[in-house]
Amino acid sequence: MMSDIETMMTELGRRARGAARALALVPDKTRSNGLRAAAQAIRIDARHIAAANAQDMEAAEAKGLSGAMLDRLRLDAGRIEAMAKGLEDIAHLPDPLGRTLAEWTRPNGMVISRVAVPLGVIGIIYESRPNVTADAAGLCIKSGNATILRGGSESFHTSRTIMTALVGGLTAVGLPAEAVQMVPTTDREAVGAMLRLSDYIDVIVPRGGKSLVARVVEESRIPLFQHLEGICHTYVDAAADLEMAKTIVLNAKMRRTGICGATETLLVDRACASTHLQPLVAMLIDAGCEVRGDEAVLAADPRAVPASEEDWITEYLDAVISAKVVDGVAGAVDHVNTHGSHHTEAIVTEDAAAAEAFLQGCDSAIVLWNASTQFADGGEFGMGAEIGISTGKMHARGPVGVEQLTTFKYLVRGSGQVRPG
Amino acid sequence: MMSDIETMMTELGRRARGAARALALVPDKTRSNGLRAAAQAIRIDARHIAAANAQDMEAAEAKGLSGAMLDRLRLDAGRIEAMAKGLEDIAHLPDPLGRTLAEWTRPNGMVISRVAVPLGVIGIIYESRPNVTADAAGLCIKSGNATILRGGSESFHTSRTIMTALVGGLTAVGLPAEAVQMVPTTDREAVGAMLRLSDYIDVIVPRGGKSLVARVVEESRIPLFQHLEGICHTYVDAAADLEMAKTIVLNAKMRRTGICGATETLLVDRACASTHLQPLVAMLIDAGCEVRGDEAVLAADPRAVPASEEDWITEYLDAVISAKVVDGVAGAVDHVNTHGSHHTEAIVTEDAAAAEAFLQGCDSAIVLWNASTQFADGGEFGMGAEIGISTGKMHARGPVGVEQLTTFKYLVRGSGQVRPG
C-alpha cells in the first residue's frame, strides 16, 4: 500500500511527465516568452513575495536560525528584481534543444543524426535560498524540462509565492501549468518518496549543504547532478612566477571563502619551497587566513599551525587553508587524486610541460593553468547560468547549464532500408 | 565489519582504480597494440580456451541447461577466432580519448576546452556468453578504462582462460595487469558487493536477460548503461508505400526475433487500415509469426488471435507480434510513449511531415523513418562495436561504443587570471 504522501508524489510525477512530453515539442520562442512573462509576473507580485518572505523570516528568527541562514532566506527588492532579471537572462540564451550534435550517412544511404532533446523531468531539492525556485525552474523551462521543486521548510511560503507568479507567467503564453510544480508539504517523507520516483523523474539536483547532498546520494534511486564537496587545490610549481602565484592563491582562497570553487589546500613544489613557500604563507596569514601546514610550512612562518590528516580532506568554506610541500607535478597530482573531491584544481607555472602533465593527470571536472580556482562557475565559463556544479562523470561534469540539462536521441532517415543477414 | 567477499571486492576495486589512473595517460598506440597482442594471445591459447569451454559445457549439460543457453555458452574454433578478430577491429577504431569536444575563449583571455577522458573503471556483469569477456574488455581498454568482469557461473572456466590470455597480451606491451580483472568467485554475494563499490567503479554494464538486469537496476548504487527491454514498434502510416511497409515490417519482426531491436508491436494508421492491414497481417502469419491483435486485426485475418492488455507491454523475443490500429501519428506516438520501453521505433510513410512528427514525438533512444528497427546496433550505426544499447537518458543513449565509454573534463589555460568581485 502506498502512503498518502507517496500517492501525492506519484500524482505530481505523472503530471510532470505529461507536461514534459508537451514542453519537448514547444518552440524556443514560446519557452523564452514564458520566461519573460514569468519575470514580469515576479515584478508585479514583488510586494506579495516580500510579504511571504517576511512571514518566513519571522518564523525563522523565532526558531533561532543562524545569521548566515537568515541571510540566505532574506529577499529584499533588489534580490527579487535579480530573480526577474535572471529569468530574462536565461530566456536570452541560445536554444539548447534541436541542436544536431552529430550527423553521418551510412553506406546503405541511411542518414543518422544525434539531436539534443530535453532530459524530461528534473527534481530540485534545495534548502533555504528561495531564489533557487526561479533560477532552477527557469533553466529547466529553457531546456524544455518539467520541474518538481522541493524547497526547504524555512522558505516554504516565499517559494510558493514565487512559484505561483512564475507559473502565471508560463501559462499566460500557453505553457502547461504542470511544467513547474512544487511539493505542497514540508513533510520530510516527501523527499524520500521523491527520490524513489524513478518512473517520473529523470534527474535530481540537490542544492544545499553537505548533509542534504549526502542524504540524497544515500537514498536516491534516480541519477543525480551533484557535488558533495569542493576540496579544491592550487599547486605552485617550481617554474611558477612568484607574483602570479601570490595573486592567484590569494584570489583562489580569499575572494569568497564560502563557495565550492574556493581553494582549500595549497601545494608547493619542493624545488621552489625555499623561495616561494614563505611569501605565500605569510601573505595568506597577513590576509587573515589560518594556515594549517606540514613541517615545512610551520618552519616557514611561526604563525602557521600544524595540519592533521583530517585537514587534507576538509572543505573549510572559511578563511582556513591547509598547505604542504610536494615532490613536483607527480606529487601534486597524486595528492589531488588521493585527497581531493574531483571538483577543481589549478597549477601555477611557466613550464608548459609541467602544466600539461597536471592538466592531464588530475581526475577532476575542471583543471586550470595559471588561473584561479574561483572561476569554477557556469557564468564565468560563459554558459550563462548554472543549476550547480557536478563532480560526477556521467552525462554532466563541471558547471551544469541549459546544455547539460539536455540529452539526445538518434533520428534515422531512410528510404526503405532493411537489415541484411 | 566487512565480509571476506566485500574485502576482496574492495581490493579488486582499489587495484582497478590504480590501473585506470595509469591507463588514462597511455597513448592510443599502446592501447591498440595491447589489443592486437591480446588477439594474438587468444589465438595462441585457442586450444586451451576450447578445453576450458568443454569443461563448462559438460557441467552445463549435466545441470540440464536449455539448448539456447548451451548454444550461448559454446565456443568453437570459429567463435574463438571471431573474438580475436573483434579485438583487432576495436584496435583499429579512432582514438576516443583526447578529442576536443568544445573550445572557446573567455573575454578575460582564458581558453576553456572540453576534452574527452576515460570514465575510469567499468564493471561488466554478464551471463553465459564467454565471448563478452573479450568484447567488453576490448572496448574498455580502447577507451582507456579499467574493467572488472563478473561472468556467469556456467562460463566461469572459459571466461577465466580468455581473460588470462587477454591480460598476457596487454602486459606484453606494458599495460597494467590490473587493467582487466575478473571476480574470482561465482558466489552471488560478490555481485551485491560489486554493485556497492561506488568509490571504485564508475559505471556498471549489465549484459544478460531481464532478470539479471532487473536485479542490477534494483540493487546498484552505481550508474548503469542498460536497457531492461526492447519493446520496439513499427508504425505504418496512411501515406506508407505498402510494398516498403511489407519489406520493413517483415525484416523488423522476423530477421532475428531474439534481438532487442526486433519489432514487438505493429501499429497501423486507421486511415489506411482497409488497404494495408490485411496484407501486413497475412504476410506475417504466412512467414510463421503469431499475430495477436485488436478487433480490426482479428477481422483482417481469421488466423490472428486476440491480444490482451499484457501484449502491449510484452517483449516476445520470438515469432510473435502484437498489432493494432491507431489514429494517425498522434495515436501511434501516444501508444509508443505509454507502452514502449524507450528503445527503438520506426515509421513507414512517404509524408515528410508525418515522419517528423513521429521522429520528434517518440521519447525513445532511436527513431527511424522508412527503415527497419533491427538497425538498432552499434555496428549498424557505424560505431564499430558496442558494449550494449542504453535506454537511459543519462550520458549514453542508444548504442554504447568506445566514444560512449568516455566522459570529459574542462581544461582551462590562463595567464594569471583571477576572478573579480
How is this structure best described in words?
Two copies of one chain form a homodimer. With 421 residues, chain A is an alpha/beta fold. Chain A is built from 14 helices and 16 strands. In chain A, α3 (46-62) runs antiparallel to α7 and α13 runs parallel beside α14 (352-361). Chains A and B meet through α10, α14, β13 and β16 of A and α10, α14, β13 and β16 of B. β13 of chain A pairs parallel with β16 of chain B, so a sheet runs across the interface.
Q: Give unreliable regions of chain A as ranges.
A: none
| Cα-based radius of gyration of chain A, to the nearest Å | 24 Å
User: Domains counted in the coordinates of chain A: how many?
Assistant: 2
Estimated helix fraction of chain A = 40-55%
Helix-strand category of chain A: alpha/beta
Query: What is the CATH architecture descriptor of the largest domain in chain A?
Result: 3-Layer(aba) Sandwich
> CATH homologous superfamily name of the largest domain in chain A?
Aldehyde Dehydrogenase, Chain A, domain 1
* CATH fold node name of the largest domain in chain A: Aldehyde Dehydrogenase, Chain A, domain 1
Strand content of chain A: 15-25%
Highest-level CATH class of the largest domain in chain A:
Alpha Beta
Number of separate strands of chain A: 16
Strand arrangement in the largest pleated sheet of chain A: 10-9-11-8-7-12-13
Major β-sheet profile of chain A: 7 strands, parallel
Largest interface, C-beta closer than 8 angstroms, per-chain residues: A-B, 61 and 60 residues
